[in-house]
Amino acid sequence: MASALSDRLSRIVKEMRGQARITESNVSDMLREVRMALLEADVALPVVRDFIARVKEKALGADVVGSLTPGQALVGIVNRELAATMGGAGPEGSAARPVVDLNLAAQPPAVILMAGLQGAGKTTTTAKLARHLIEKRKKKVLTVSGDVYRPAAIEQLKTVTAQAGAEWFPSTPEQKPADIARAALDHARRHHFDVLLVDTAGRLAIDEALMREIRELHAVLNPVETLFVVDAMQGQDAINTAKAFKEALPLTGIVLTKLDGDSRGGAALSVRAITGAPIKFAGVSEKIDGLEVFDAERHAQRVLGMGDIVALVEQVTAGVDMASAQKLAAKVKSGEGFDLNDFLDQLRQMKQMGGLSNLLDKLPAQMAAKAGEADLSRAEKDIRRKEGIICSMTLAERRKPEIIKATRKRRIAAGAGVHVQEVNRLLKEFEQMQGMMKKMKGGGLMKMMKRMGG
Ligand code: GDP
């Protein structure tokens, strides 16, 4: 759950209130929590240890300036250090520098070799990169598949390459990967391609033959970029895979795929640390345009589960319905649970606001990534569907969503005319919102209410 770490952090921030300085003892409480949370997010132990040591050093030397409490200052340090660890900053760097896109500084064709396990998203990413290079960098791009074990993979690359508007070089399962590579390279040279993207075979687990083969490909192709494609949902396994590929190949960059999923993205931290290669891109959907230049700052917020929730709620409640905003604030204040009725109120207020788009960038990265994809009318339709689902629930269910088990879910789904998955999604979203509400108790919302005289 994305909010686990920030729940803990905000508790510690509270506990540290009234303490004027960051000291050896108050910092270690907090760092214990950070450590646990990172381990839960599947970050490798040595990486966690290093990280904690660096944060501690920075925190103890830090000036707690202005109105910041030591707790808040620490959260800031943890956040910045996370971004720096995942970003392009060198060992001395304190802020994350954005990573340069792809290096194409080679005698054309610049070769980009894709490495990773089967299912990591290599083929999809190859096509996404082709499109990126065509659209953003105006390059002439050729793709080729060296996956001679799965004819379907060659066909898949052909299809997605066409979608990307690039050219595809045919290969067959009868050929040797190194021969395919030579032929494609030759074709690319003769036809003046700027870039050759080489997709490779991945196995379900690391094996020596696979590694030998990709090393051979690397020797034949002399790529300017060797990208390690890794599934962000892979967790601890990602670490072993990263180790194996780093030992086999001089990796120049990482593509972290499936960041549109629910994982906290802790893999980014360890894969970056273990390979030493910068994370260049993030895959954020199955679609051809679902590729973003990796943003370490934003990803750090995701790992921490923070976003400008307070600002979001302020905006939602500001102009609209003061009565229900006050009711909500009172609930938060009294510690009474935020339930599905309140969630429904919020949905309705959002709908009334109309301007959904500027709310989106106030959400935590993970939620915003989901929301950002949708166009606004879809977002509005989505709200109506959610309203429909909550309206199909009994009052008892809305007050105590935990009683909604399989049978109730089926009834609610039927009532609202949606699939059970959609009910599940709504319940999950509600849980996230509830988590945020808990965090705000006595925080931003109350301040906002005071400012408005509420
Ligand atoms: P390969 O075996 O490494 O070539 O992996 P594929 O490119 O075939 O991808 C495996 C599966 O992951 C496919 O169903 C892709 O659509 C999906 N996939 C790849 N990248 C992403 C991503 O960024 N987000 C999502 N949601 N799915 C992805």
Automatic annotation (TrEMBL):
Reaction catalyzed: GTP + H2O = GDP + phosphate + H(+)
Class of this enzyme: hydrolase
Quaternary assembly: Part of the signal recognition particle protein translocation system, which is composed of SRP and FtsY. SRP is a ribonucleoprotein composed of Ffh and a 4.5S RNA molecule.
EC numbers on record: 3.6.5.4
InterPro entries per record: AAA+_ATPase, P-loop_NTPase, Signal_recog_part_SRP54_M_sf, Signal_recog_particl_SRP54_hlx, Signal_recog_particle_SRP54_M, SRP, SRP/SRP_N, SRP54
Superkingdom assignment: Bacteria
Hydrolase found in the keyword field: yes
NCBIfam families: ffh
Family annotation (Pfam families): SRP54, SRP54_N, SRP_SPB
Domain SRP54-type proteins GTP-binding: 278-291
Subcellular location: Cytoplasm
Residues holding GTP: 116-123, 199-203, 257-260
GO function term, MF aspect, one: GTP binding
GO cellular component, one term: signal recognition particle
This protein's UniProt keywords: Cytoplasm, GTP-binding, Hydrolase, Nucleotide-binding, Ribonucleoprotein, RNA-binding, Signal recognition particle
GO biological process terms, semicolon-separated: SRP-dependent cotranslational protein targeting to membrane
Keyword S-adenosyl-L-methionine included in the entry's annotation: no
Listed name of the protein: Signal recognition particle protein
Gene coding for it: ffh
UniProt free text on domains: Composed of three domains: the N-terminal N domain, which is responsible for interactions with the ribosome, the central G domain, which binds GTP, and the C-terminal M domain, which binds the RNA and the signal sequence of the RNC.
Biological role: Involved in targeting and insertion of nascent membrane proteins into the cytoplasmic membrane. Binds to the hydrophobic signal sequence of the ribosome-nascent chain (RNC) as it emerges from the ribosomes. The SRP-RNC complex is then targeted to the cytoplasmic membrane where it interacts with the SRP receptor FtsY. Interaction with FtsY leads to the transfer of the RNC complex to the Sec translocase for insertion into the membrane, the hydrolysis of GTP by both Ffh and FtsY, and the dissociation of the SRP-FtsY complex into the individual components.
Family under the similarity heading: Belongs to the GTP-binding SRP family. SRP54 subfamily.
Species of origin: Hydrogenophaga intermedia
